[in-house]
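User: Hey, my collaborator sent me this sequence without any context and asked if I could get a structure. I don't really work with proteins. Can you help?
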Amino acid sequence: EWAPLAADRFFNLVKNGFYDDTRFFRVLDGFMVQFGLNGDPDVQRAWQSANLRDEPVKQSNTRGFVSFTRESVPHSRYTMIFINYRDNSYLDADGFAPFGQVVSGMEIVDKLYSGYGRDNVPDQRRIIREGNAYLAKEYPRLVAIEKAAIVP
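Assistant: No problem. I've predicted the 3D structure and written it out in structure-token form, which is a compact way to encode the shape of the chain:
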């Protein structure tokens, strides 16, 4: 109900294995963790222009809430997602519409490897071009999602 287009996109991406073997590539303590670029460049390229229409923000970007990332242009959400580590409600005004919430396991999200810091995050363009090969070589300590699944 919060962001049905985003929820439907996430459901279908998970159902079809899109997030399997993807990395939490941007882990910023006290802010958020970002993931959602497929490790296979061919798969990721297929989604590059599959943008979602913007939705009204009905929930706030507070701790544990999950939103798709977006550019500063309208209708630019596609596969990348972030989980808020704290109250980032200032993002609401920028159109980041939460579609879900971590209801258990946030303590695991809190422990994701963040040692690369804010100044050494992977280049998203290189992830898109080179996939997991780039991340394994340059950022070997990133945590991966082994398998994402929809559970009843």
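In plain terms: Helices lie at 4-15, 41-47, 106-110, 124-130, 132-138. You can pass these tokens on to your collaborator as they are.
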